[in-house]
Amino acid sequence: MGGAGQAADASLLAAQGRDALPSDASICHHQGSLMRIAIPSDTDAGLESTRAGHFGHAAYFTIVTVTDGKVDSVESVRNVDHDAVGCGGVIDFALGLDLDAIIATGMGRPPYMRFSQGGITVYAETSTPTVGGVVERYLAGQVEPMDPTAACNHH
Question: pTM for this structure?
């Protein structure tokens, strides 16, 4: 998956004179490991995708694989239809993506709890509009785990 998105991401990085996003492995949260991170997004444009404001209604999950503090691959996965499967269906779908972390602008308490119980760390980042920007911030150690008391209570 992600073929065109991966090529565009590689072209973008090459045009910027780098083979990966800036990532000082000494400050990366998960030095020396492989991580699959999902960022809810509005489009399938890889690192250039705009981030979705609502986890459950995101059109896509941009999945970034990070190895030893560097972006290894980027793929866009179409999310299931929230209206058709409900919140639980979206959670089940995301749990099946073999993720280590999700970086969202926010989410309800049920998805937060199910992801936490499923071994997926939920991070909150609300100020960066693009997937690539939030990945850079994450790799620089500037994204914190979500405070469970900040989870939306309307779900």
Answer: 0.76
